[in-house]
Amino acid sequence: MDYKLLIQKLQQIMDTSFEINELQSIDDTKSIAEQRLGEASFVVHDQLYFHLNNENEELPLVLSVPAHRVSASERALIEWIITSMQSVSPLQADQTTEQSNMKLLGAWILEQMNSSEPLAIPEGLGKLTPVFSEGIVPFYITYEGGHDSGIAPKSMYKLLQSYFGGEIMLVLLQQDKWLVLAEEAIVLDRTELKDMDQSTDRTEFALESELMAFAEGLYEVVANEWVGVFNLSVHSPLYTLESLPSVTSLLMETIQLGKIFRMSEHVYFPWQFTLERLVSRIPEEQRSGYLDEVKESSILFDEETISTLEIFFQLDCNVSETAKRLYIHRNTLIYRLDKIKQETGLDVRSFKDAVLVKLTLLLYKVTKRL
User: Fold this and answer.
1) Coil, strand, or helix at residue 179?
2) What is the CATH number of the domain that holds 321?
3) N or C: which end of the chain has fewer CB within 10 A?
4) pLDDT tens readout for residues 304-360
5) Which residues constitute the domain of residue 133?
6) C-alpha–C-alpha distance, residues 210 and 342, integer Å
7) What's the Cα-to-Cα distance from 64 to each of 23, 110, 156, 338, rounded to whole Å?
8) Domain count, the chain
9) Last residue of a domain, one of 66, 85, 101
10) Would you report the helix, strand and coil content of the chain in percent, each value rounded to 5?
């Protein structure tokens, strides 16, 4: 590797100084570097180090720069530049470059999510633009518990690839939080896509149903592989790379809302949380103020009432179907609904009152659990 050219490239991008040192000459760093040899970079004492010629065990070198001078996306970009300049076998180069690209993509997504201004797509991600033009379906997966050290990305990638039956992109956003990007043709029915009239779009309902079935199957695969709790969300196909950060943010929010409003479930879909999303964005002061006004109607916040109303609303306010789902007599359900009307003045069999009670329950849940 031409180290002089490397430093010139980096200094053109960043207004900071870089140094190249022998690893043995840096106090308290060699042992940590050896432990993290599989990582492209690591931090010790506010100094950021990048592995260079790791294959030369006699004289390992590192590139160093003050850690506070480098953002997450810049760190990923530096890793990508070093990888592109390394002299390695073609197979190893392809694998390493792909890993660096995914790190760069993850860093760019997180930085864009935290920025109010649009950020330029990093140079190393340009090749993804035509890939997205063919349609990419994003999945967001989180994992809690089971393994303190988390799940190895390689293990997750191998399992996911076997389920998808094709190449995927796996982006580790944070420990045990993955963004999975798969080609639309892999996830959705290819035959149906080919046979579909070009002048008509796939109906929204059919698309959502197909995505839901695929996501449920994906959840079963990962949940049966490891001990712990998985949560998963999925979005409809994307056709531009620029839309990925905002959709990733939406998928993250969907899982947060799912854990509040549908605790017994683990697979969540953004189109099912439109009202919940709206309610969660109401300022806490206003939510609490409204609940204080209705707190005298404590029957609404009784566990039995909440579970009854949730099923009632889920089944479109159908009394007979709700009674069957709850395994109670129809008259028992009518008694419960009449009792709610008697204590609150709201008859949930009326559309207007049902909407008000539904909003009240959502406000209660989000205020209680956020």
Assistant:
1) strand
2) 1.10.10.2840
3) C
4) 998 999 999 989 999 999 999 999 999 999 999 999 999 888 899 999 999 999 998
5) 127-270
6) 43
7) 10, 24, 31, 72
8) 3
9) 101
10) 60, 15, 30
Q: Kindly state whether residues 201 and 323 are assigned to the same domain.
A: no
Round to whole Å and give the CA distance between 86 and 147. Answer: 34
172 with 294, same domain? no
Q: What is the 3-state secondary structure (H, E, C) of 77-101?
A: HHHHHHHHHCCCCHHHHHHHHHHHH
State phi, psi for 231 to the nearest 5 degrees: -130, 145
- Confirm if 65 and 18 have CB atoms less than 8 A apart: yes
Give Cα 1 distance to the centre of its chain.
37
Percent over 70 (pLDDT), the chain: 84
**Structure tokens belonging to residue 208:** 């959502």
Please return the burial class of 346, using the count of CB atoms within 10 Å of its CB with bins 0-12, 13-18 and 19+.
Answer: buried
Examine the domain organization and report whether 189 and 256 are in the same domain.
yes
**Are residues 336 and 261 both part of a single domain?**
no
The residue length of the chain stands at 370
User: Are 37 and 83 members of one domain?
Assistant: yes
How would you label 158-185 residue by residue, b for 16+ Cβ within 10 Å and e otherwise? ebbeebbeeebbbbbbeebbbbbbbbbe
Whole-prediction pTM: 0.70
Which tokens is 63 given? 């590139």
Co-location of 131 and 265 in the same domain: yes
Q: What is the pLDDT of residue 219?
A: 96
Phi, psi of 140 (to 5 degrees): -120, 125
Residue 169, φ and ψ in degrees, nearest 5: -110, 125
Nearest to 216, CA basis, from 314, 310, 275, 139: 139
- Residue 1 in this model has a pLDDT that exceeds 70: no
In this structure, what token pair is assigned to residue 216? 């449920």
Q: Tell me what pLDDT residue 91 has.
A: 43
Q: Phi and psi for 183 in degrees, rounded to 5?
A: -60, 140
